[in-house]
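Give me structure tokens for this 216-residue protein.
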Amino acid sequence: MPGEHDSDEIDLIDLIKIIIKRKFVVLITTVFFVSAAGLWLYMKPDSYIATAEIAIGKIAGIPIDAGREIELYLETLDSHKNADYEYKVKSEISKIDGISISFNLAVTGYNKENVNNALSSILEKIMQRQDSVYKDAKEEFLKNIHSLTLNSKLEPRFFMKSFTYPSVIVKKTFTEAPVDLKIKQKLIVSLIGGFFTGIFMTFVFEFTANIFRRFK
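Here you go.
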């Protein structure tokens, strides 16, 4: 309706007048946010991340220990040489390969060398342990291979050759540069956030001022 449309226009104009009236609140709030962000960026050290993916080996097509050995080892580490880590287990099923398990490992820290060295050290220990587990599991399987393949049409040698292999590092990426957003991007976000916070504060001040005027 025409009347409602006019009322909406008047309300919008009133809001703009409030913002113009208290423009210094918007300005001060925006400057505060940008300054705080700049100070935080100046004091905060750069953050680095190095990643790797480990594919769990298989014995006769079955993942070695279902990857539990790696998980148990990683759970014992709170941190490693001034670097923190986190991991994610990924399980996939296909008609050809059956169940496949892999670990996505990420090491983070505030020093590039520490992060890269920590990833290398953790991977080295993981692979050493996996090699040991693989050998033990393979020996155990060989002892029982005839009974396990008795009902299978596959020959034992073919069965072992085609479906048995150790764990491998699929890929690893060492860190070269900080992973944080660029300083300009963060300052722009702070500028926008400060501007809209300032607008919100103008309405809070105006609302508070109206309440005081009514009670006088």
